[in-house]
Specification:
By secondary structure, the chain is α+β, with helices and mostly antiparallel strands. It has two domains: 2-188 and 364-368, 2-Layer Sandwich (Ribosomal Protein S5, domain 2); 192-360, Alpha-Beta Plaits (2-Layer Sandwich), CATH 3.30.70. It is built from eleven helices and 13 strands. It has helices at 2-11, 84-94, 117-132, 139-154, 161-168, 210-228, 239-244, 248-272, 279-292, 299-310, 336-350, and strands at 17-26, 38-39, 41-54, 60-64, 67-74, 101-107, 173-178, 184-188, 196-206, 315-319, 324-332, 356-360, 367-368. The strands form three sheets. It has a six-stranded mixed sheet with strand order 5-4-6-3-1-13, sandwiched between helices. It has a four-stranded antiparallel sheet with strand order 10-11-9-12. A hairpin with a 2-residue loop joins strand 4 (60-64) and strand 5. Helix 2 crosses helix 4 (139-154) and helix 3 (117-132) packs across helix 5. Bound molecules: 2-deoxy-2-fluoro-alpha-D-galactopyranose (GAF). 2-deoxy-2-fluoro-alpha-D-galactopyranose (GAF) binds at residues 26, 30-31, 33-34, 158-159, 161-162, 320-321. It is an enzyme of class 2 (transferase).
Length: 370
């Protein structure tokens, strides 16, 4: 394993443990996690591998195969910046339970594709430290700790979806997660058995204002819930009555969250019935709602979704936070080439940078490699 070789070359001995944690795509349930709602992500085959040996002092030495050079030495949690924040944040959340460590990181999550490389990094490091120090944390506790690192240390007010997907997913399954109770269920997702494939269309675009807009959406949802007198938008039962009490953006955001939670449940119903190709219509509806009600799409994502459907996809939608990143398309295997052609052609027509295509099946969540 090349991360072990890099560890040995930098620190002079083999690492005590090596853990891998994956990125994710979200099949449906977008922006619902921080509204106490439902999500249905699955892990992708790309992820982050962390090789770690604990130290007896509080120094963290860090190297990444994706950031060549000498290991970065971090003597105090205040010193971290850039990608190292995701690692140091995990140490900060573990507090007195751990000391420092020597760490080598290797990642193959396509950068900027919105496939949660940061959650993969947090969960790989947290899982390895949990193992090394015998902390006894469950995968969900690892996810919560990683989310807290991102919220409190990195300053990104994300929900629990990405970290939970990275920590809990099972191969061949999507993860149905109730983000309030944190109860989860693995839902079998065998697309190949239905002649289908999941195509990821990476727009290769990440709009700069994405983080600010994310925080704004979250605040709008919280404000709408306060006005409606419910703990979270998940608790809205009478949508028409709720919409009557709201105006402007808060009205639109509420419309999206309430209908999106229903779409997650409907999609699970279709999967259970074996009507896998039929989930395409729900993917399309989710995208329209994210575009028009939640307003987190982008021209590149909209063109990808429209062109994918035109080229023969059963359905398509943006996945993840939005404002760039990736769309997913559910494509009959024999239509993959025509869908890619359709999207590539539409991108050229719009003068967009060519997208990157990846296909994926549901992969395994965090696990120990050595
Ligand atoms: C980002 C966040 F990190 C998740 O918590 C989730 O809110 C997602 O956007 C939108 O569904 O990936």
């Amino acid at each position: 394993m090349r991360v072990v070789e890099a560890f040995r070359a930098a620190y002079g001995a083999a690492p005590q443990t090596v853990w891998r944690a994956p990125g994710r795509v979200n099949l449906i349930g977008e922006h619902t996690d921080y509204n106490d709602g439902f999500v249905l992500p699955f892990a992708v085959p790309w992820g982050v591998t962390a090789a770690i040996t604990p130290r007896t002092d509080d120094t963290i030495r860090l190297l990444s195969l994706q950031a060549p050079g000498e290991p970065v030495t971090i003597a105090s949690h205040d010193q971290s910046a850039g990608w190292t924040r995701y690692v140091v944040g995990v140490f900060a959340m573990l507090g007195e339970r751990v000391r420092g460590a020597d760490i080598a990181i290797d990642g193959d999550v396509p950068q900027g594709a919105g496939l949660s490389s940061s959650a993969a990094l947090e969960v790989a490091v947290a899982s390895a430290l949990n193992d090394l120090h015998g902390l006894g944390l469950t995968p969900m506790e690892i996810a919560l700790l990683s989310q807290k690192a991102e919220n409190d240390f990195v300053g990104m007010p994300c929900g629990i979806m990405d970290q939970a997907a990275s920590a809990l997913c099972q191969e061949g399954h999507a993860l149905f997660l109730d983000c309030r109770s944190l109860a989860s269920r693995n839902i079998p997702l065998d697309l190949a058995a239905h002649g289908l494939s999941m195509l990821i269309i990476d727009t290769q675009v990440h709009h700069q204002h994405a983080d600010g807009e994310y925080a704004k959406r979250r605040a709008e949802c919280e404000s709408a819930a306060r006005k409606l007198g419910v703990p979270a938008l998940r608790d809205v039962t009478d949508l028409a009555a709720a919409l009557d009490q709201l105006q402007g953006d808060e009205r639109k955001r509420t419309m999206h969250i309430v209908t999106e939670n229903h779409r997650v449940e409907a999609l699970i119903g279709l999967l259970r019935a074996g009507a896998v190709a039929e989930i395409g219509a729900l993917l399309n509806a989710s995208h329209l709602s994210l575009r028009d009600q939640y307003e987190v799409s982008s021209p590149e994502l909209d063109v990808a979704v429209e062109a994918a459907v035109k080229g023969g996809a059963r359905g398509a939608r943006m996945t993840g936070g939005g404002f760039g990143g990736s769309a997913i398309a559910l494509v009959p295997v024999d239509r993959l080439a025509s869908v890619e052609e359709s999207v590539t052609g539409a991108y050229a027509e719009h003068g967009f940078q060519a997208p990157r295509f990846l296909t994926t099946t549901p992969a395994r969540g965090a696990h120990r490699l050595a």
